[in-house]
Amino acid sequence: MTAYDTNNIFAKILRGEFPCHKVYEDEHVLAFLDIMPRVPGHTLVIPKAPARNILDIKPDDYAHVARGAHKIAAAAMKAFNADGITVQQFNEPAGGQVVFHLHMHVMPRHDGVAMLPPASRKEDVKVLEENATKLIAALKAG
Ligand code: AMP
Known about the structure:
HIT family, subunit A, globular, 142 residues
């Protein structure tokens, strides 16, 4: 497998070299909004540990990401008045991966509303800001 590339965009976000709409951070993970959301509130949870995908991440680091996704899912249900949540995590190009720092997609869903195809539309910064605010408030409310 290809080695982890420290210049991938999510590594730059982790180092603060590239901005993001952060919704949650702890010792092990960072969660921020996807800039090309497939649904409103589409969030990515990434490990702080460098890992390309499920094939090289340490199991404990993967568990931290799963814990983060679990937290975001509960908050997203409230923040977006959702009916359900889709969680996805792609590995290697054959598995649909485009950015090579492991990430879990957490997407709030509504009955009868389809997701947009991946990377179909860059969202307005203002909308991303509003959605981040909603998620942060739901996370705070517990
Ligand atoms: P994938 O690797 O297929 O799981 O998808 C990568 C995801 O990262 C896509 O949903 C992109 O919209 C998203 N993405 C790419 N660049 C950024 C960025 N700078 N900030 C937030 N999301 C991003």
